[in-house]
Specification:
- The structure is a single chain.
- This protein has 139 residues and is an alpha+beta fold.
- The protein has 4 helices and 2 strands; from the N terminus they run H-H-H-H-E-E.
- The protein has helices spanning 6-40, 49-53, 70-75, 78-99, and strands at 104-113, 127-136.
- The protein has a two-stranded antiparallel sheet.
- The protein is elongated.
Amino acid sequence: MGLTSDIDVVEATAQLTATRAQWPVIDLAITQAINQLSRLLGQGPENLRAELNTAAPLPPLPPTVPIGFPAELARRRPDIRKAEANLHAATAEIGVAVAGLFPRLTFTGSGGFQSETIAQLTKWASRFFSIGPHWNTRV
């Protein structure tokens, strides 16, 4: 005494199975979107998952959107800022490497007192010192 035919039950079961089969594809798309957002924000992958898994209302839009050239808008992105900072660091390292190609001249020295008795330490002859250059060529 069913209200529907067996065909309706079979169709509903097939639709449920098809929907369950699509779940891994949908989950992969969600993970990729979260990882792309994390990268744009300059964070590691999966850092936003906990925040995005909880349901929350959408944040309000800013009252005004700053206008500028596309290059200026791109420079606001955290990943581009990070890449720019890495470029500045690499440029500084080049300067250090070029400076290392030139020879380096340093002066070293030492001094002190030496005597057989304590009374002799105050005499000029008990003093000693040494100063000399050190030429370093790191080529």
